[in-house]
Design a protein that fits this description.
By secondary structure, the protein is α/β, with parallel strands linked by helices. The chain has a single domain, classed as 3-Layer(aba) Sandwich (Rossmann fold). It is built from 8 helices and 5 strands; from the N terminus they run E-H-E-H-E-H-H-E-H-H-E-H-H. It has a 5-stranded parallel sheet, sandwiched between helices. Strand 1, helix 1 and strand 2 form a beta-alpha-beta unit. Helix 1 packs across helix 7 and helix 7 packs across helix 8.
Length: about 230
């Protein structure tokens, strides 16, 4: 029987590609998404579409209200930066950073993996074309993996967890190409941090601009923008 893997799925380009990679490696995918009080909650509908279309064994949506903590444009009414260059994005940690978000999400993914008897967790973090988030770096993933194996029953008993980051060293263009090679339908995904009421992308936030950069450099058309 194929091994189980928990995949953190936001419904965006990176996490959807990561799910496809996990399936291509032969894993049974258990997708986990988070309703954390984000302003772009439309991404959860995208995650549902992706999980259903790509045949996840199970799709769990966990509610954890990070809006009560605040300190991020994604969990408050603070304006989302628009029209920034890639250089400006990388210059400092942006206001769209959500305090300890990946630590919270990975911890919940780890808990589910342990409950499922899975030893593999996939997350679509990227350290090249990204918005300067500290919890997307290889050294962070290495540290979390060490913690996971020190702080769980499975880890202490020798059933070590592995955190897979198949996109961490890829450019956005390389991610798009990989997804297309694996047959990903990017029309199902959502990337925008500040969508219109009808869910259409703003095409100006960091996430939209990085997505556009990826498709353009990959020589492909983004189905969300025509």
């Amino acid at each position: 029987m194929a091994p189980k893997a928990v995949v953190l799925l936001s419904g965006g380009l990176d996490s959807t590609t990561t799910l496809a990679v996990a399936q291509a490696l032969g894993f049974q995918v258990y997708a986990i998404s988070f309703d954390y009080g984000q302003r772009h909650k439309v991404e959860l509908e995208a995650a549902r579409r992706v999980a259903d279309h790509m045949g996840a064994v199970e799709h769990l949506i966990v509610k954890v209200n990070l809006r009560t903590i605040g300190a991020s444009a994604l969990t408050s009414e603070d304006p989302v930066p628009k029209g920034r260059t890639v250089e400006e994005m990388a210059r400092e940690i942006p206001v769209t950073y959500v305090p300890a978000r990946n630590t919270v999400f990975l911890s919940l993914g780890l808990a589910w993996a342990e409950a499922l008897g899975a030893q593999d967790i996939f997350i679509g973090v990227n350290a090249l074309d990204y918005s300067g988030y500290p919890d997307c770096r290889p050294e962070y993933i290495e540290a979390f993996t060490k913690m996971a194996n020190l702080g769980t029953k499975a880890g202490v008993e020798g059933r070590a967890f592995r955190i897979h980051t198949p996109l961490i060293s890829l450019s956005k263009a390389e991610i798009v190409r990989k997804g297309l090679e694996l047959g990903v339908d990017y029309s199902l995904t959502h990337s925008c941090y500040d969508p219109a009421p009808d869910g259409k992308p703003c095409r100006a936030c960091d996430s939209c601009l990085l997505r556009a950069k990826g498709f353009e450099e990959a020589g492909a058309r983004d189905p969300l923008v025509g």
